[in-house]
Design brief:
The protein is α+β, with helices and mostly antiparallel strands and 353 residues long. The chain has 11 helices and 13 strands. Helix 3 packs across helix 8 (185-194) and helix 6 (142-150) crosses helix 7 (167-181).
Length: 353
């Protein structure tokens, strides 16, 4: 099936004529020219109503960012990991109440109380594996993360008693997928999500196993200049942040979140529902999605931050409105990507009022 990408002509004309006539482009002035770049897409009512690309995907060769440029999603990847788990739950291959002790061998005592659902909504209390991985060390994998967990007898808190964001949890979830799907995590994502949605350029990147087409490389600002810092010792961990994609493929993903192509509506709503602690209090996270309000309306979003990439998918379902911003630089701070997305929304809505 050939996918069409309808655009709002007025916005595309504005962006091609003059920055002064395109306030969204003005927001991204620092990303333009011979700088690490960005791509921005606004989706409303099933159409891409604004799209623009800025700057360079690779500075050394002055390769410009395009709508089909693939960026490392970092923690935006978590929504795909959560979806993979829920696909297996729907097929009766696992239960979210299963404890880690029932899934993995040789875990410390806390494996008896931490459930899969605690991993999904960051209430497991498991320590962050990054604390045990030197920045200049060899790359670790999801399986290495499990070994770190096995050798660390403590947790931050009792499972379900508090909320603390955990990359470790999502590395373990990738291994849960592999065990019960009986295939590599990257292959399960490809066959059960990416291929089914025709996200043909999206993949969980494994060196020497697959290749990223049209790849953006990451850069960090050092001493007033940009230095390529594309990979780190944690970049090979897949479940918490190893997916590459572009705005064209993410448009397809965004639309799938409104229908039942991948998950039934009930399961989708579960991902967008605030989790609860043991005492019944809510947390600002569902399953692979942060949850907040903007202008009195529910927002589901996720940022992504890793060596020299900053990204966000920001959705207001009640408005059928989504903002996607992908960048290949180490600024701003990850939490400030929410502010950036909301600046884009503000300019977009002011323009159409």
């Amino acid at each position: 099936m050939k996918t069409l990408f309808p655009f709002a002509i007025s916005f595309m004309i504005l962006s091609s004529c003059s920055r002064t006539l395109d306030p969204i482009s003005d927001i991204f002035i620092a990303y333009q020219g011979e700088n690490p770049g960005a791509v921005v897409a606004i989706i409303q009512n099933g159409k891409v109503v604004y799209q623009n690309a800025f700057g360079q995907a690779e500075l050394e060769n002055l390769t410009p960012v395009q709508p089909n440029t693939n960026f490392r999603l970092a923690s935006v990847s978590k929504q795909f990991t959560a979806t993979a788990i829920l696909i297996l739950e729907q097929r009766g291959l696992l239960d979210l109440s299963w404890t880690l002790e029932s899934v993995f061998d040789s875990l410390p005592a806390y494996g008896k109380t931490i459930q899969i659902q605690h991993l999904l909504n960051h209430t497991s209390g498991i320590w962050d594996y990054e604390d045990f991985v030197p920045d200049d060390g060899p790359q670790v994998t999801d399986a290495d993360v499990l070994e770190i967990v096995k050798n660390h007898p403590k947790v931050y808190f009792e499972a379900g008693s508090a909320f603390r964001y955990s990359n470790t949890a999502y590395a373990l979830l990738a291994l849960v997928v592999e065990k019960y799907a009986k295939m590599h995590f990257q292959d399960f994502l490809k066959s059960e999500i990416f291929d089914r949605l025709e996200m043909n350029n999206t993949l969980a990147f494994v060196p020497n196993y697959n290749e990223v087409p049209n790849r953006a490389f990451g850069y960090s600002k050092e001493d007033g200049g940009w230095v390529k810092r594309d990979q780190s010792s944690t970049s090979a961990v897949l479940g918490d942040g190893g997916i590459y994609s572009n705005v064209r493929d993410l448009f397809l993903w965004d639309q799938a979140l409104y229908d039942e192509k991948i998950l039934p509506k009930e399961a989708l709503q579960k991902t967008f529902t605030k989790g609860k602690l043991n005492d019944g209090s809510e947390i600002p996270y569902g399953m692979g999605w942060h949850i907040k309000e903007y202008d009195g309306e529910k927002v589901v979003y996720h940022t992504g931050s890793t060596d020299s990439f900053r990204n966000i998918i920001y959705r207001i379902p009640s408005r059928n409105l989504s903002i996607i911003i992908l960048t290949n630089r180490d600024t701003p701070e990850e939490e400030n990507m929410v502010n950036l997305a909301e600046r884009v929304i503000s300019e977009f809505e002011e323009r159409i009022d």
